[in-house]
Amino acid sequence: MRSLAPHQSATTKPPTIHNGGSIVTDQLTLGLDDRHAGQAANLAAGTKGYRDDTERVKVALDTLIRSGTTFTAHTVYTIVQLDGGGAGFDKNLISSRIGRAAQDGVIVHTGQWVNSPRRCRHASKIKEWRGNKTRIPDQRDS
């Protein structure tokens, strides 16, 4: 039986057999497993005894999802900054929370890429999102 690497989950798709019996690993599945494990670890690390950055990001994203407007990671960033009175937070929580919401089907990419207004991002392209009307969680579920 094949043992799992520390970053793999029990749900990782096993290698597939191609080309006369040679083993080809499904790299996309392994890569997505790594991404999802990293997102979960990042979200867990965002909760500290003295403040809960993960909750601040979650509330901001949930507000945007329910509003029905389109938004970007920068929009979430701005809301979290305003909500915390300018207090610092782990900005990686935004991408982790957006990634999980997209994976769960709660948000969908509009197909648009916009320039990030943050100077440190050097006008890089970022995705525009909107809430998936059929999958928006009830406020009591949050």
Descriptive account of the structure:
The chain is of the alpha+beta class and 142 residues long. It is built from 4 helices and 4 strands; from the N terminus they run ββααααββ. The chain has helices at residues 27-45, 53-67, 73-83, 92-103; strands spanning 16-18, 22-24, 107-115, 125-131. The strands form 2 sheets. A two-stranded antiparallel sheet has the order 1-2. Helix 1 crosses helix 4 and helix 2 (53-67) crosses helix 4 (92-103). The longest helix has 19 residues, at 27-45. It starts with 15 loop residues before the first strand and ends in an 11-residue tail after the last strand. The mean pLDDT is 76.
Descriptive keywords:
about 140 residues; two-stranded antiparallel ribbon; 4 strands; globular; alpha+beta; about 40% helix; 4 helices; two-stranded antiparallel sheet
- How would the global form be characterised? globular
> Which segments are poorly predicted (pLDDT under 50) over 5 or more consecutive residues?
none
Secondary-structure element sequence?
EEHHHHEE
Strands of the widest sheet, in order across it, are 1-2
Total count of strands: 4
Task: Give the N-to-C terminal Cα separation.
Answer: 40 Å
Helical element count? Answer: 4
Task: Look at the helices and sheets and give the structural class.
Answer: alpha+beta
- Give the percentage of residues in beta strands: 15-25%
Helix content: 40-55%
Cα radius of gyration in angstroms: 18 Å
Largest sheet: 2 strands, antiparallel
Mean pLDDT value: 76
